[in-house]
Protein angel homolog 2 (Geospiza fortis), 577 residues
Amino acid sequence: MVKSLEGNLCEEWPRHSMLPRHVQRLGRDWITHWNGSQILALNSPVSSCMRWAGHYPPWASFPLPISADFSANWRFHPFFGPWRQFQNSNWHLDNYTQSCCFHLPNPSMKSEGEEPLTKKRKLSGQDDTSIPEQQTDLSNQKEVSCLSVAQNEEKHGSKKGTIKRHWEYICQQSKTVKTAKNKGSDQSSTGSEATFDFTVMSYNILSQNLLEDNSHLYRHCRQRLLFWTYRFPNILQEIKELDADVLCLQEVQEDHYRTEIKSSLESLGYHCEYKMRTGRKPDGCAICFKTSKFSLISSNPVEFFRRDIPLLDRDNVGLVLLLQPRFHCKASAAICIANTHLLYNPRRGDIKLTQLAMLLAEIASVAPQKDGSFCPIIICGDFNSVPGSPLYRFIKEGKLNYEGLAIGKVSGQEQFPRGQRILSIPIWPKKLGISQNCVYEIKQQPKEENAGEKLETAKPDNTQEIVIASEKSSSKLRHHFKLSSVYSHYFPETGIPEVTTCHSRSAVTVDYIFYSAANDDTADQPGAEDSFCGGLKLLGRLALVTEKDLWTVNGLPNENNSSDHLPLLAEFRLVER
């Protein structure tokens, strides 16, 4: 290191004549900074450094080293100036590694205001998320160098810049429930009602591959906060603290799930089910539940990619679990938990609606009980759609007339949609095997003697329909579930929107927890016919925050929140009549 520094000397800094002689001789290509940002950049032009915290004289085009803050494992060469002025500093390797990390320049990043060419998001949705070898090697170097930073900050429990989120009680009963839980009671029964209380979290944990492929969305972040070795301990700590009975996770990277996430959650008492995205996408969805609260009846993955249908050429997936609560009640008691991450592309509302219909059809085939009604249902995920959009209204209201609807307006992600093409009728082809009521079809051809006649559609139950090939196409979508949203999406006092995700380009709500409400639930929403046995009562939820609140801690991810999404958390009571 010293040898290379002697070679550089001060050939490029003659203009900084006001600087101390020993600082001039460092050479322009060696920059140290130990205050605020705690970054060391070696052989890196000033323009490639993301940001430099702290204050320094306006005449200096780079941060000045301050001896009081220095800490390293090497000794200065005599050219650095008199050794005496530094001899009182603590030069220890341990101090250095715990308070800083290496920032190695990315050759594709020319300046802070320019995004890497290899990491620009393609809104067409056909982007390749593969990472160049050089970039992958660089990422590995960064992760190793920053591991000690995460460990040190976890050890000292730094909570600077923490987002304040409080628990909101939806009904008075939930306060009683909290008290009962503190006494070790997880269930209660009053009269003829059997009850079972449990919590559900939905959390997009931000796949490391997607983070690196879309680095332009995280320019506001200090780079050391973006390494997986820093992020995962924070994410795991959030999961531990919130202590949900059911976790619905999105953007779970397969190699991280296999090597770290699954084993970490199993050690916390969870059983994990995982569905990786199809094709070359390295992440997927996971549903994890505490074995002390539930047992698994069935696990049903849903792939939205269909090779024989051009419309369905995307690799998104869903996962549907049927769980048995561990308490004494009716033998048929079960809860259906679904998790998904729909396509991002704002201009492909046709794909989003079709993916949603496929998920709903799978739920409809899993959730029926012996009496023909549906068991209680919870649907979590990142739907890449905003509140009030046609897709959101379809989920809550159970119906959507999409005739004349522009393809770019389905999700409401863009204020001025670029997708102007009108949705086709029907949106998806017949060979998908899903009806406009979002259930699986059983096609039946007319008998010879009745050829040409339109037979009346028969519906033996809510899970499938017998559809005749000559059935007239309709622009009306329906589903059989009566769903409510855990969150209201706006603060009632101010009307300011709640936010579930925040990065350099946007701060909106795209993450949801929908549930089938019991008839007497305070959040009960009008929708499809009541076809549920009992239902779910929303007891409470972890409050969301505003965009302004998030930017007070520099948005997401930040020091303590290591995803660009916030975790959603709700408490439910299962009610059986």
Q: What stands out?
A: Residues 324 and 480 are 22 Å apart (CA to CA). The radius of gyration is 28 Å. The mean pLDDT is 75. The longest helix spans residues 133-156.
